[in-house]
Amino acid sequence: MTDPQRYRIEVAGEPEMDGCFAVRREVFVAEQGVPESVEMDAYDAHAVHLLATGAQDGRPAGTVRILHGAVARRKYPAAVDDDLTAVLGRLAVAKSARGTGLGAALVRAVEDEARRLGLTGIYLEAQTHALGFYQRLGYTAYGPEFDEGSGIPHQAMRRTL
């Protein structure tokens, strides 16, 4: 578990969105080579975003987004067929914050927010190198490996809350 004295995780409002996008650009665009046009999509406007910031310096350190309801069904029609499943996506932790437990804390924060919204399950599409991370947090992989448009292999995963 991440040290609460080190990072603060909160639902991001409009003023915090630049921090969310900065972390995603650092991780997905700069490090992994995902085109920004793929990484930043129209679903961002309909998502609940969480932002982790340094407790001492307030700097963005990690982010994740949650889709649910009609938006989740529209983006993931083959995987989400109800209004009770949240979609965890765009989980990114800045290089300087890796190995601190922040990634796991962000996943747990998504689960807490999903419960608060009355949702009962989580769906995600994990980069295959991260399968073990999500499995340790209780997620189960299913179906074949696929490319979701970034050129990086992914695997569908689920967890009941």
TrEMBL record:
Q: Which top-level enzyme class is recorded in the Swiss-Prot or TrEMBL entry?
A: transferase
Which GO molecular-function terms appear in the entry? acyltransferase activity
- Keyword annotations of the record: Acyltransferase, Transferase
Keyword Magnesium on entry? no
Enzyme Commission number: 2.3.1.-
Q: Where is the N-acetyltransferase domain?
A: 7-161
List the protein's name.
GNAT family N-acetyltransferase
- Source organism per entry reads Streptantibioticus ferralitis
